[in-house]
Design goal:
homodimer; 205 residues; Glutathione S-transferase Yfyf (Class Pi), Chain A, domain 2; 2 domains; globular
Chain lengths: 205, 205
């Protein structure tokens, strides 16, 4: 059985819990709290030198960091990865967009606003930057979703899981989704997928 | 024939020129200068709403942004993507590492230090952050390369192309590679690959 090193509140960790629930992949959960420095201990750094979660420990004993790479590993051969080359590249396009143009603003704003005590004051000069770039990412998503139901086209895939994670709780970063009807409809389509689980879901132990 | 919208000095654009040279894929080059705002024009934004290069226009007329997603598209079925599932995930792990933990520091420091007039003064408060995080990325690479010749294991693949691009010119961002012997040996192994081309290379017109 795989083991997932995970923080329940983290959207990057939620991606893997959601994908494994939908794929029917059994796994064990180990809670790690980044806010208490638990990803910077020598024991954790020996498993992932980059000191980040999620970290997937495969049944074989190999450690796989980077949420979107672990998603790809888990979903190979399933309907969560498109069959054709162009749609597979589109899926990866939006997964790289998520990590470069979305998460560093929308997820980081959420962390400092809603999880770090005093974060709103400590990062007061950064919030305008996160807000500007986060809304730019949402604008791009809204435009795309005005033409297609999912990020890689007609079918739900890993790109939707990757972008759903922090978009569905963007309000905790101070982002107002009321002006984004296409995003809100897409969030509902994702939540309506068979086997969908919420952020709070944990596997039975 | 594919068309690549590219800036010659950009490492992200270089990734695609290098991969296409090694794969023997013919393409046309269109020069775009981000420093002159040429990726923010209405015409460019109609091709890529995220306003970034590289942008690959496929022979079919489809536009594919995100350098690492375009690399994956181009290299499918070639030796630049590992055959087995775990090594393919390792390749993606390092490509996501490149975009999240490496490029935002090492490439961005290079741009502001070596390409934007007055950038060193304008971003004086950011350079210490870029330096700390950029050296952390290099430390992680050095440790990994002390155990394996390439990022996904025994064979050169897309992860090496993605990380080579900005690492081989990290000095332009103020990073000193003299303390990283394993990285320097890996840079040489990459440069010795069949069909390797330097940053300055352009396809014949």
């Amino acid at each position: 059985m795989h083991t997932l090193y995970s923080m329940q509140a983290s959207g990057n960790c939620y991606k893997l819990r959601l994908a494994m629930a939908q794929l029917g992949v059994a796994f064990r959960l180990v809670d790690v709290d980044t806010l208490k420095g638990e990803t910077r201990t020598p024991a954790f750094l020996a498993m992932n030198a980059n000191g980040k979660i999620p970290l997937l420990k495969l049944e074989s004993g190999e450690y796989l960091p980077e949420s979107n790479a672990a998603l790809f590993y888990l979903a190979e051969g399933s309907a969560l990865i498109p069959d054709d080359r162009l749609h597979r590249a589109r899926m990866l396009q939006w997964m790289f967009f998520e990590q470069y143009s979305h998460e560093p603003y929308i997820a980081v704003a959420r962390m400092w606003r809603s999880y770090v005590p005093g974060g709103l004051e400590e990062k007061a000069d950064q919030f305008p930057v996160w807000e500007k770039n986060g809304y730019q990412a949402l604008d791009i998503m809204e435009e795309h979703l005005s033409t297609q139901p999912y990020f890689a086209g007609e079918a739900y895939c890993l790109a939707d899981i990757a972008l759903y994670a922090y978009t569905h709780m963007a309000n905790q970063g101070g982002f107002d989704l009321s002006r984004y009807p296409h995003i809100r409809h897409w969030l509902q389509r994702v939540a309506d997928q068979p086997g969908h689980v919420p952020l709070s879901w944990r596997p039975e132990t």
